[in-house]
Amino acid sequence: MRPSGRALDEMRPVSIETDFTKHAEGSALIRMGDTHVLCTATVEDRVPPFIKGSGLGWVTAEYGMLPRATNTRMRREASAGKQGGRTIEIQRLIGRSLRAGVDRVALGERQITVDCDVLQADGGTRCASITGGWVALRLAVNKLMKSGDVISDPMLDPVAAISCGIYAGQPVLDLDYPEDSEAGVDGNFIMTGSRQLIEVQMSAEGATYSRDQMNTLMDLAEKGVAELIAAQTAATA
Amino acid sequence: MRPSGRALDEMRPVSIETDFTKHAEGSALIRMGDTHVLCTATVEDRVPPFIKGSGLGWVTAEYGMLPRATNTRMRREASAGKQGGRTIEIQRLIGRSLRAGVDRVALGERQITVDCDVLQADGGTRCASITGGWVALRLAVNKLMKSGDVISDPMLDPVAAISCGIYAGQPVLDLDYPEDSEAGVDGNFIMTGSRQLIEVQMSAEGATYSRDQMNTLMDLAEKGVAELIAAQTAATA
Amino acid sequence: MRPSGRALDEMRPVSIETDFTKHAEGSALIRMGDTHVLCTATVEDRVPPFIKGSGLGWVTAEYGMLPRATNTRMRREASAGKQGGRTIEIQRLIGRSLRAGVDRVALGERQITVDCDVLQADGGTRCASITGGWVALRLAVNKLMKSGDVISDPMLDPVAAISCGIYAGQPVLDLDYPEDSEAGVDGNFIMTGSRQLIEVQMSAEGATYSRDQMNTLMDLAEKGVAELIAAQTAATA
Amino acid sequence: MRPSGRALDEMRPVSIETDFTKHAEGSALIRMGDTHVLCTATVEDRVPPFIKGSGLGWVTAEYGMLPRATNTRMRREASAGKQGGRTIEIQRLIGRSLRAGVDRVALGERQITVDCDVLQADGGTRCASITGGWVALRLAVNKLMKSGDVISDPMLDPVAAISCGIYAGQPVLDLDYPEDSEAGVDGNFIMTGSRQLIEVQMSAEGATYSRDQMNTLMDLAEKGVAELIAAQTAATA
Amino acid sequence: MRPSGRALDEMRPVSIETDFTKHAEGSALIRMGDTHVLCTATVEDRVPPFIKGSGLGWVTAEYGMLPRATNTRMRREASAGKQGGRTIEIQRLIGRSLRAGVDRVALGERQITVDCDVLQADGGTRCASITGGWVALRLAVNKLMKSGDVISDPMLDPVAAISCGIYAGQPVLDLDYPEDSEAGVDGNFIMTGSRQLIEVQMSAEGATYSRDQMNTLMDLAEKGVAELIAAQTAATA
Amino acid sequence: MRPSGRALDEMRPVSIETDFTKHAEGSALIRMGDTHVLCTATVEDRVPPFIKGSGLGWVTAEYGMLPRATNTRMRREASAGKQGGRTIEIQRLIGRSLRAGVDRVALGERQITVDCDVLQADGGTRCASITGGWVALRLAVNKLMKSGDVISDPMLDPVAAISCGIYAGQPVLDLDYPEDSEAGVDGNFIMTGSRQLIEVQMSAEGATYSRDQMNTLMDLAEKGVAELIAAQTAATA
After folding, report:
1. Cα–Cα distance, C167 to A10 (Å, whole number)
2. Subunit contact C78:B73, Cβ cutoff 8 A
3. Taken in order E192, E195, E201, E205, is the CA torsion positive or negative?
4. Could you say which of C67, C115, C119 has the minimum Cβ distance to residue B67?
5. Do F62 and D83 touch (CB under 8 A)?
6. Across chain D, where does the E strand assignment appear?
7. Is the pLDDT of residue A80 over 90?
8. Are B173 and B221 in contact (CB under 8 A)?
9. DSSP assigned state of C18
10. For residue E150, which phi and psi values (nearest 5 degrees)?
11. CB-based contact (8 Å) between B126 and chain A?
12. Looking at chain F, which subunits does it touch, using at least 3 CB pairs closer than 8 Å as the criterion?
């Protein structure tokens, strides 16, 4: 049924390789099947102007794709002179999601920037970015705690994300690119380790969906996120 | 409890004034309380390159805010030299939502651009844009049908949108700005006249929410959308 | 003779609706026939760097057109990534004209930004912007005086603007779009309540004009400005 | 009275050196006192889209200043990433003014671009650009006629421009920079060889002026333009 | 002497991992010590306008660095809105160097774009990009030959690049970042497998160098390039 | 052999006219045959952020071409909205080269910006910019020393630049445009008065070159630079 032969509720193999690059305070290469995203976390002692002096920390994210991460080459955004709408939407989502898992008081007045760069894409890059980005963030915070710059752990609960959608009339978990490009309804669920919701984005393109279908997709998402959080825990143990 | 004194499930007064401007093929000024959005629909005989020759139509949207639509003046995006991330996210949402209510085969190979410009803002501008934008679109399509350019009505079902959120611990319908700026959880539901979902976006900032809360918000949304669709129907009768 | 049937020295009906939006310190919707411009005045306590510490105030303006204010849709400048030459010329003119009517010492070291956004266009938008912008400015200054922030009235004399041109060989007052697009010679006169000139801009495109014609146009302009200043006075009484 | 010791109606020395550069179809270095502008005219066989196929020609202009043409270094516009408002205003004025002196039917479907680059500035650069730009244009058209590409001379009448203003309470001709930066009222008159007006731009900054003053300035301008047209004629004889 | 303990003429360990990503026609991850660059080659059937119809092929390159490839985070160029001067210089150099090793007649009218993205930087990224880029290019051309799209091998001779410089008064081969940031004289030599020169760039910053020193550096470069070409040959065997 | 009839080792006539414009602290118009570049040096009391407080001075450069400096009109970079890759490469080279001839301690914490604007181009504009730019810089420093702002002369040694290349199989000195556009190998040598090298850039486009050829070109360059330094010395005596 699914092009990859997976069961409807079966995720692609997940692997998380920490410390893939040496300069960042935290880094991880996450692979969800053929989707590979390099995530790095950078700690800086400055915060955005709107929280200066508040004692609160900040977590933000940026997202990019290498031009040939995809099947046909996409124009490099640096050369086009601006980030596209899709990029901006995604990086806002990543930042928002990661912030939801952080106690900004405990973090203290510093900023952590999570860069998520897609080396190879096969659907679900924004979810992989959130899941892998959380690992990079966790590692960077570990370093801050080890050095004594942060005393009380600001990481409240792991954050992970998974896509679901309706493909060929069936609710499926973790869409790859061939599914994603055909699905009339698909979206992303960002959740915590304790199954609380952080963000739900479920869109239809040329289609609609019922509340019942929405509920089924949410069930699938809970299953997927549980597996991802296990992988995050293993990688950062 | 609510700053405006409204009940938890009470929307702000809605009014839709059609033909507010004379040049556009369809136009409507929608007012949801103190949020006022001017929506116009422009019909053009060209379509984007990626569907040229397909026989399919296209519906797209652009969104803007007058610099002093808000309490403090925002920098004009034309002068800043680019549309901000929030603007881009919103106009992509409007376009996607309106397309879900249109039979693109019946529309034929033409493009309708819905411009939503916020004259005055008090929260919920993207929802008002979708609801008012649908009216402008409906009116423009009416003109195409009257002239015989379009034979079979491409408008499948009305599309409307409403915000919901958790304010001071309580689920509330149709957040105004004072609520929106305090709510830890809020989002938008875009639905059709037959209660099908088109898009759900529920975000938390520095908070999380449970599936039960999600369900309550969805109940509120269904109530709100029903009222909006009644207003759309009255305005385009 | 004129497409609208007006007499050569007859202006379109003028109306000025104050407080059209609620956030700005001053706001007015001016209608000159089918040309409708929303003007808002924003007071800020900062001034541009070049007058910092001088004790002088500043008045500046920005101008924009909604994409479908015109007969065919124009590309949104925010999306194009810059303000066009025409926009920049117009907003510089509005700012310069309004400053000529203000005692910047009496205003004190603060800035007032007048935003003029064309909701519907039918020729003469820059003149309507100046005339309506003055009303928004007057209202904002009234508020500053009422609050005691400004003691001595900095508004020296009302400022209004009207277009004139040579249409079908005849000097006419207040050109609408059908006239404007045909006139070989046209321009704008910005004047004060005491008939002093602030700015004259008279251009020919593919034509020239004599000093005699220039004088006739100036006579028409004086008549028009007198009517506009009466409308301003009524609106701000 | 005047910083330069000139009489009120005395222009600065004017010189026009043709063929200053070798590549352009027409070129001239105009010097009005210490204001030096290099003007080149480029002939191309294409026209802007909006007149394609009309048989009409087009004349357009671009304006620039070398960064250290002025007393303090200005930021290079190419490095700033856009042309400033002043630049855009000026180049639109130059193009409009030169077009008024050209029979676009006789020119035929080709475009002439007049580039005006200020090598050294001391006030009046836009007027010098128009006057010198006309010479470059005349030379380029001469070449077209010599080669037989254009049969009937499209140059209707010479076009020249001069600034006037009220300095220290006195109407003066051809303001240099020290005057220009002090004058409360100043502007530019663009006229033809037969004393017809093409464009009048008279602005006040923090001041106003009467119709009588306007008339005196126009008398001065007529005197100045006559001298400029004599210089143009001598240079292109 | 050298921070890394290497001998003056000792290169860092080189490894080239081919097919690091799956979508590109050719791809290689080159590691020169801690400098890691992902190179991909994309084949397209179109060529730049200036050679359209000439029958000649084109090879071009783009270069980027992930924001945290370096010790401190650099601003993402896509977000800054333009590629910096250094980036542009480097990608022009890569393109020029690779073209020198290609017979553009044999390649036929198609374009190959080599993207070089630095995942981790420790000096010498442009040289690594050229050396690794050649491998990606070679692999992509192999594919074209295998499919029969290209008959005669257009790859004339391998192309590789190495940096040399004067560090602490001594000529050294293959500078790493600690050396590069201290060296007063350094540069890059791009050479072919048959020791012909393609490009020499030797710069001094706050220093100068003699012809004798230049000759010593060139001897070092010849040694380094020979080793790199052996690595390229092994990787593409 | 050479299109101009020059001997292989013969430069074009060089002239350097100082004080070509009056505002800059130093200015020179250099002519190398038909290549004419206006160079100005601007002294400012601020330095770039990265050396603030270091006591060191800075020398930087910007480069531009008038649109019709070349045989066909090039688009104005200010209008295109950015400086092209070639411009950026060249101005970085000019700045780097001039800095190599300056004792930045002796200069003191101030910045000198050298603007090089090509009025007419016939090959070799970057070399002419460096050679002429040095003269403007020398003159500006003279002024600083005369005023006592700088005590010890920071100008270490004259800096000049010349192009060489292989044209029609022969090594030639000082390529003009017809040679430059045909040469498969060409580059630039920047040297001091004492024959030390500052920068060597030797590129091949669709060709390669041997070390022997490189040595011959360097001999030619030494001859050329000696003549240029004589011209600089005469101009600044």
Report:
1. 74
2. no
3. positive
4. C115
5. no
6. 14-18, 26-32, 35-44, 58-65, 111-120, 159-167, 170-173, 185-192, 197-204
7. no
8. yes
9. E
10. -125, 130
11. no
12. D, E
Name which of A19, A23, A36, A82 to mutate to probe chain E: the one with the most chain E Cβ atoms within 10 A of its Cβ.
A23
Residues A45-77: tens digit of each pLDDT: 999 999 999 999 999 999 999 999 999 999 999
- Is the pLDDT confidence value at A154 over 90? yes
Task: Please give the structure tokens belonging to residue F48.
Answer: 């770039």
Tell me if chain A has a CB within 8 Å of the CB of B154: no
Which pLDDT band holds residue A85 (cuts at 50, 70, 90)?
confident
Three-state SS string across chain B, please? CCCCCCCCCCCCCEEEEECCCCCCCEEEEEEECCEEEEEEEEEECCCCHHHCCCCCCEEEEEEEECCCCCCCCCCCHHHHCCCCHHHHHHHHHHHHHHHCCECHHHHCCCEEEEEEEEEECCCCHHHHHHHHHHHHHHHHHHHHHHCCCCCCCCECCCEEEEEEEEECCEEEECCCHHHHCCCCEEEEEEEECCCCEEEEEEEECCCCECHHHHHHHHHHHHHHHHHHHHHHHHHCC
**Residue D196 and residue C214: Cβ atoms within 8 Å?**
no
Q: Which amino acid is at D192?
A: T
Do residues E6 and E95 touch, judged by C-beta distance below 8 A?
Answer: no
**What is the amino acid identity at position B198?**
I
DSSP at C11: P
* C27-39 confidence digits (pLDDT tens): 999 999 999 999 9
Give the tokens for residue F123: 């090959």
**Cβ atoms B119, C38 nearer than 8 A:** yes
Token pair 């010791």: residue: D5
Find out whether C211 is annotated in a ligand binding site.
no
Is the pTM of the predicted complex or chain greater than 0.80?
yes
Euclidean distance between CA atoms F94 and F134, whole angstroms? 9
**In 3-state terms, what secondary structure has residue C36?**
strand
pLDDT in the model for residue E142: 98
Alpha-carbon gap, residue D72 to D85, rounded angstroms: 19
Residue with the two structure tokens 């959608």:
A165
Instruction: Give the model's pLDDT for residue C232.
Output: 98
Q: Look at residue B68 in the predicted model and tell me its pLDDT.
A: 98
- Shortest CA gap D167–chain C (Å): 16
- The C-alpha R_g of chain B, in whole angstroms, comes to 18
Which of A42, A113, A119 is closest, CB to CB, to E21? A119
- Which residues of chain E have a pLDDT value below 70? none
CB E168 within 8 A of CB E55: no
DSSP F237: -
What tokens appear for E187 in the block? 């540069």
Amino acid at F7: A
Q: F92 and E85: CB-CB below 8 Å?
A: yes
- Across the interface, whether the CB atoms of D68 and F40 are under 8 A apart is answered yes
Residue F67 has pLDDT above 90, yes or no: yes
Question: By CB neighbour count within 10 A (0-12 exposed, 13-18 middle, 19+ buried), where does B146 fall?
Answer: exposed
**Least CA distance to A91: which residue of chain B?**
B85
Closest approach of E110 to chain A, Cα-based (Å): 15
User: Would an 8 Å CB–CB cutoff place B64 in contact with chain C?
Assistant: yes
Residue count of chain D, please give it: 237
Task: Report the gap between the CA of E90 and the closest CA in chain A (Å).
Answer: 14
Q: How far is residue F75 CA from its own chain's centroid? A: 23
Residues F215 and F171: their CA atoms lie apart, in Å, by 10
Helices E85-99 and E125-146: angle between axes, nearest 10 degrees: 40
Which of the four pLDDT bands, split at 50, 70 and 90, describes residue C69?
A: very high
**Cβ A117–E66 below 8 Å, yes or no?**
yes
Instruction: Give burial (CB, 10 Å; 0-12/13-18/19+) of A89.
Output: buried
